[in-house]
Amino acid sequence: MGFGVAFTPFNVMMAFAGVMVGMLIGALPGVGPPSGVAMLLPLTFGMDPTSGIIMLAALYAGTMYGGTITSVLINTPGESASVVTCLDGYQMALQGRAGPALGIAALGSFIAGTIGVVLLMLVSPLLARWALSFGPPETFALMCLGLTTVTLLTGDDALKGYISMALGLMLAMVGYDIISGDARFGFGIPEMMDGIDFLPVAIGLFGLGEVLHDAEQVGKAPVPKGRYGLRDVMPTALDWTRSKWAIFRGTVLGFAVGMLPGAGPTVASFLSYTVEKKVSAHPEQFGKGAIEGVAGPESANNAAATAAMVPMLTLGIPGSATTAIMLGGLMMWGLRPGPMLFEKNPQFVWGLIASQYIANVLLLILSTAFIPLFVRALRIPYGILMPLIITFCITGAYSLKNSVWDVGQMLVFGVVGYAMKKLGYSPAALVLALVLGPHAERALRQSLIISDAGPGIFFLRPISAVLMMLALLAIAVPVTRALRTWVRAG
Amino acid sequence: MHNADRITAALLLAFSAVFSAAALKYYTWWGDSGPGSAFLPFWLGLVMGALALGLLYRTPAESAQWMPSREGARRVLVVLGVTVAFVTLMQVIGIVVGIALFLAILMRYFERQPWWLTIVISLSAAGMNWLVFEHWLRVPLPMGIFWTS
């Protein structure tokens, strides 16, 4: 059924456009997957939701690969999931082997993406069926787990992560209360009473915020000279023998990690690198241009990007900042992500899954054929790129509701995003909390209404008790660590 | 970083206190059958307050450089200023003309792109914007006084 939906000429075109734009966005330093998805989301409003999500999902896959190009060529990751690729990828480029590094990454991404879609197809319906039995307490516990793990894993400062999350939840409280109808924190401004839309916030934090941050330091590393034609990017037979198990391990690991709420591609790529270094017969080559160090993490991040769709579609809990924005998009199209999605909108779900196969094939073709083009794109001076990105942020925010108010909101959050980046707060946790906030509140209040034991209800039902315990663990780990250093410091 | 953290913590502490207090004052704590609209906001304010106290009293980690250089700060302010001016004037001059001007100004300011390139890029970007949003997606962009349709 899915292929019938995905193979319409328009949807294939959308997948093509998504992969192409995604690779470009991934390749441009300073614009990562979340900003790309946030800026392009307005373009999809005029479309059928299925075509819209096909484009966004293809874009996500494209950015995963695009980020690799800059990691290898200029030692600057285009997005966080390609940070580890710098370690060995750039070393390979310095040795004149940038071509094979990019080639093996493309091949690994293709294999991992394709296996990932098969797993997605097998796992999601099972998970959705299981999640159908969830009541409000389980939903709330699941959201707590999603929020705490994302916060814990997206930054290196847990306290600041939780502050971002709390701020996001507080912003989510603005606007009409779904149960009582109170207009909360509206200050009598009609636009405020409708609540704070996540899209202008996401475009501001990720798009404008990043641009402002980068505007501080203009000037960048030169692209190493080399040849990037089709023949030059083909890995040798030796490269392939060295990489094939790394690709396979990366795929499995990436998918498993990507499914967890919050973990996502970045964590997957780091784990894969660690594993490859551990199992390697020559760990001393890592960091000096070992091809496994590129193949493993690059496969892992693509598998994880695919796997991140599993909790988003089946549970309505996004696994990463990018899927959080996609989830917001789904809600805007009037779809309710969660277990019911598979029953109510099968065409949407299977169309999306089938289109992922197509996107992966397109990705392989485009990435090998168009590497020279993307290498050239890297040479676009930042002084031209930056103003262009800003105009895109402005029109994108405006087109949401045709209102200048949203553009203003986007500007405010652009400044907030800049400050957050400077001071080490995670914008991903804020956006996720803003998207999940209203749903978490509804689930919390419904649970307390049906409960005879007050908040005890979350610990009396087995599934929600386990989820809650895990969420508490995610809070307890950094707290105990902080207390220990505090005690030691006297 | 420590001073920046202290200032942030103080601001967050004040914000969370006002947030919780306002929730209690203006909204209902407990409705007919369950928690009302003040319930979660009040607790969130409390949680944020606790987090801010944690930030205020914890041992400072490393003192990373967080203040932008004088040159960096100037760049950021210029970009921000031009952007704010553009958004303020958007209704009057229209988004298409606005984009062309905006791009031209920033491209000349950063790295002094040659004039011919500046003109080609700003005009084509403005045109693309019109084509994609106004023409294909039918978003009624503000066209301003230079355009009447």
The CA-CA distance between the termini of chain A, in Å, is: 65 Å
The portion of residues assigned to helices of chain A is over 70%
Which spans of chain B have pLDDT < 50 for at least 5 consecutive residues? none
Number of β-strand runs of chain B = 0
- Secondary structure category of chain B: mainly alpha
Number of domains of chain A: 1
Helix content of chain B: over 70%
Provide the number of structural domains of chain B.
2
Mean pLDDT of chain A: 83
Radius of gyration of chain A over alpha carbons? 22 Å
What string gives the helices and strands of chain A in order?
HHHHHHHHEEHHHHHHHHHHHHHHHH
Distance between the termini of chain B: 53 Å
- What Rg of chain B, in angstroms, do the CA atoms define? 24 Å
> Which word captures the global form of chain B?
flat
- The portion of residues forming beta strands of chain A comes to under 5%
Structural class of chain A: mainly alpha
Instruction: Compute the average pLDDT of chain B.
Output: 82
